[in-house]
Amino acid sequence: MIFIILRANKLPLxxxxxxxxxxxxxxxxxxxxxxxxxxxxxxxxxxxxxxxxFYELGYGNNNTVTIAAKEFKVKRxxxxxxxxxxxxxxxxxxxKINNSIEIIKGDIRTIDISDATVLxxxxxxxxxxxxxxxxxxxxxxxxxxxxxxxxxxxxMLPTKTEFPFFVCEKPFKYARxxxxxxKAIYGNPCIDFTASWLLVEKYLHELEVVPRQYLRFVxxxxxxxxxxxxxxxxxxCEDEIPPPVQTYIGILKTFFNIDxxxxxxxxx
Length: 268
Prior knowledge:
This protein is α/β, with parallel strands linked by helices. The protein has 2 domains: about 15-25 and about 190-265, no CATH class; about 35-185, Rossmann fold, CATH 3.40.50. Helices cover about 40% and strands about 15% of the residues. The chain contains 10 helices and 11 strands. The protein has helices at about 15-20, 25, 35-45, 65-70, 85-95, 125-140, 180-185, 195-205, 215-235, 245-255; strands spanning about 15, 55, 75-80, 100-105, 120, 145-150, 155, 160, 165-170, 175, 260. The strands form 3 sheets. A 7-stranded mixed sheet has the order 4-3-2-5-6-9-8, covered by helices on one side. The chain has a two-stranded parallel ribbon with strand order 1-11. β2, α4 (about 65-70) and β3 (about 75-80) form a beta-alpha-beta unit. The longest helix has 19 residues, at about 215-235.
């Protein structure tokens, strides 16, 4: 996780400028490594077993395929990585365990995934998600499981939820809209300020990717972005912007020079 100090600017930095100042690999989640104990938790939640063929789509610096092969004894563990340098590093550091581990340099949108029974899929680009959902529907066998972090792919309904981890099993089911999906997952068709704060807090705790000294700031920023996006989509529980949201938006603007106000654009 990379943090940028903004106090040197005299004028508040608008959120689009703030995000564009970050490396795109960080914004898209490409360079966020999953700690080993988190990887183990993910594999347990998906009930990964010896008969499975596990794919991690976007392998990066993780040890998930090694853990799947070594500790969960899967039939085959495959890491897919499009970046040449990253895939070469992965080849050098993975252990040889009865040839059960394979690193493929390739694009997840084109490589063969038809034999996969469990896939870890952690991408946020809507175009990639749409393309991969189509592939999951057409190429995977029934009972294949898709593991995602933070949310299910698009409007999929998870068969298992241990937030922020979701497992969707084929044949997949879909919500008609975002409200139906939120209700199916959280039991409530809307998100209030408290829920947005607690969801981010749990996400940061479970992923263990943010240094402790930055947790409060990241929790504040991310929960505000979630609540504002929910407000804009008309799925907040509040009819008016609540005082805590106004307060935290003010804190981010005053003390961190990050202006989130331009994100609020829902019209009544």
